[in-house]
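Incident review: delayed structure delivery

Summary: a single-chain prediction request sat in the queue longer than the usual turnaround. Root cause was a stuck worker, restarted by the on-call engineer. No data loss occurred. The affected request and its eventual output are reproduced below so the record is complete for anyone auditing the incident later.

Affected input:
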Amino acid sequence: MKRNLPYLLFGASLAVFLGIGLVYLANKSSQNELNDNPPPVEEGLFVLCAPALEPVIEKAASEFSKETGIQIRIKYDASEVALQQLKLTGKGDVFIPADESYIKQARSEGYVEQSIPLANMTAVLAVRPNYPKPADQLTWKEVLGKDFRLVTSSTQATAIGKLTKQGLQEIEQWDAFMAKNPVELGTVKEVLMSIKTGAADGGILWDALLHGHSDIGKVALPELAHIKAQVEAGVCSKSNQRSEARWFIEFLAKPEGGGKFFKQLGYNPPAPPTPGESVGPPDGEIILYAGSMLRPALEPIIEEFCKEEKVTVRRIYNGCGILVSQMRSGARPDLYVSCDTRFMGEVQDFFEKSVNVSNNQLVIVVQKGNPHDIKSLKDLGKEGLRVGVGHEQQCALGAISKETFIKSGTYAAVRRNVVVESPTGDLLVNKMLAGSLDAVVAYRTNWLPNTDKLDAIPVTGIPCAAPIQPAAVGKGARNAALSQKLLEKIRSETSKRIFLENGFGWEEKP
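Output delivered after worker restart:
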């Protein structure tokens, strides 16, 4: 036995060695399989955002995700870099550059379909901590002097770099600025860090970025006062989640949503349009405002119209309460298609006589098989039921639902069970699909694409539960003739078929 011991030990060692080798090969094989079959793309909205907005977008995205369950993935890049990435890859759901000029370019090239103003920023001089002279005593001449170490953002990649160049060219100071030979960095965050660490004496930054940096001096030099950025968030045209993207940018703009974070973190509110002043679109472009629920029917009609007439229709879909608020603040679309006659009535003075286009029906959307045995509005008051409704101020769905509840005598009972209020019926239906609600009151058109997963009970016997959608051309619209032609297209027999296919009723011409 002793004579065989070396052979036994060798055999055992060989077995161990072979075992380790097999484990290694198995792991290697598994790794190769992972490389050949990468994990699925992360879920949620993909946001392309400028670093200048990072402080507020981080907080707003976190709260939006908690409220809706929709995850947000954010990639921060200089505005021009983000725009080029969007154009090169086509990937992105929301685009938030540091200035509206990038949104306008993206829209003109077909990469963004709608946008909402969020904030306003002004250029200031930021001065490093412990600079030997009080920051507020510095002059533009001293900034350009030989002893001041100046840093700036890229004129090719960043909004502040581009706007600084344009602004200083206007007052004939750009050549003197460039003669200073400032150090040029890629993003505003790099400029901020360079100043904060003392690597530079100062640089030009947006005022909001200095919020919370009390050790850095902030100087509002007269030479920089006219350099401003209007921040807008846009929905990317190639996004497969355009509804969710729209909800996110609407949330960012709401005072009680993202607006509170913009205010807290030192961003100025967006510049309001001058009341009564219409900012006209360029020739060959129509600005259309329409209630969100009309989008499925309007989009194919508008696309065909654009090809036939070789024009651009800039579409702004939103809750009608929000659209009316914007119009009362001075916004003037060429054409408005409202979710309900009451919202058209609130701005009728801005439009020619309206015509009725379609109608829609309120329904109670329930889980497949109706597990809670809901047969009428009264049943929405059952104890423990989780109910979702439209927001009463922000959209026609909410206002109409409220009136329907009141006229049916169920308002108080239903309100006790409401756990979600939304500016759109689409979001309510999505929450039903996610299983977080037991019932919602929405439009038939919201439910129709999901008949295989959800059931619906029509709300009948109450006239206001079947709202009519009117449309009208704006008074004094710059492109009034084109707008009237689009309205006629929307009222055509071909369009009638599209509306009916999408679950709407049709309002015949008188």
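Verification: The CA atoms of residues 140 and 221 lie 7 Å apart.
Action items: add queue-age alerting; document worker restart procedure.
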